[in-house]
Predict the 3D structure of the following.
Amino acid sequence: MSWFDEAEYIRKQAKRNNEFFANSLPMIASENVLSPLCKEMLITDFHGRYAEGTPGHRYYEGCKFFDLVEEKAMELAKKLFNCRYADVRPTAGTTANIAILKALIKPGEPATVLDLANGAHISFGKWGAAGVRGVELISYPFNDEEMNIDVDGAIKLIKKVKPKLALNGRSVFLFPSPIKEIAEAAHDVDAYLIYDAAHVLGLIGGKQFQDPLREGADVMSGSTHKTLPGPQGGMILSDHKGDTDKDKSFLRKLGFGVFPGVTSSYHLHHVTAKAIAFAEHLEFGKAYAKQIIKNAQRLAQSLYERNFKVFGEKLGFTKSHQILLEIGSGKGKEASKKLEDAGIVTNMNTIPGDEDPLNPSGLRIGTPELTRIGMKEKEMDEVAHLYERALLKNEDTKKIKADIKEFRKDFQELHYCLKEGFRGYDYHKLI
């Protein structure tokens, strides 16, 4: 094959991917789609440029325009999350977590965490960022019925082990965490509470979930491409004032954790798109987050009524964008593959009691992307019916896939973002 043929092959796969998702139900809880204006930022000249350092203090020249962008991004982030400190440089949520761990804990020091089988994110596990840092990890007790950290048990654990950090990192995030109580216990033993908001960042920014920085979290990390529908990337937030020597040292350590800690250049085009996403979320985030949660709750109820085992029944199944289903011992992978064949994209997931993350017993389902393309509660009933057809009635996946393609015809336009021309540009053409 010539170089042109090789390039055309790659381009063909990208087009096939676009077509696949346009005709499917994308329901992976950690995914979303960009607005046209965010997309435009990713193809600007900021791509490929370097800006090591901070605005006004760069190792490279040629950063005067990007300095203005980064300053605006920080300003918008602080406004969106009502805080005093924002670092928009991390290239991923996990990168943000590594930076925090590098800044605030040394190898061998203890940290309290949620266990992976109980919904933790791998970056706070022994195979992820915390393991790379060499942190001694001690798991919180967990309440399976409420799908949450056992508050009394967590407080006792923190008082006993006196961790350096109390970590709250979750990949299955059905309900708000008991941050206030855990933060009080952590601060009593001179520990910092770190809240990984990767999944729920957009819900927090939309004022529809908990408010960790007001509830006692010292630092909040997050991903900018999940319930907050921006480009792939991460960020670090804090409401520490920086008005004491201890506070100044704390914030300086966070900054050094990012650069030179875990980044060199930090994807300037992504930072630029993040700034656009923050601006859009300030305008549309409340309505978007509210509808995401409404859709998740309706879908969970509808799945439950169709005889699926849905976690969190006691508390209404979910107060976030996520739903967790129990499929059967070790059958999560098989179920997720069958759904993909039928045109429903989700992922296998561990549930309480699972020991093998590669052969889990559950499915994790998310509503951010279906909400983004305009679906509401009534569509969630149809989606639940499609799950029933695929997994309980074992209908032909080709027939279900054809029905989904027809169903999607009315849901091809993005919502909760700028949809009309912007100062002379028609951004519809950039989709």
Summary: Residues 424-431 have pLDDT under 50 and may be disordered.
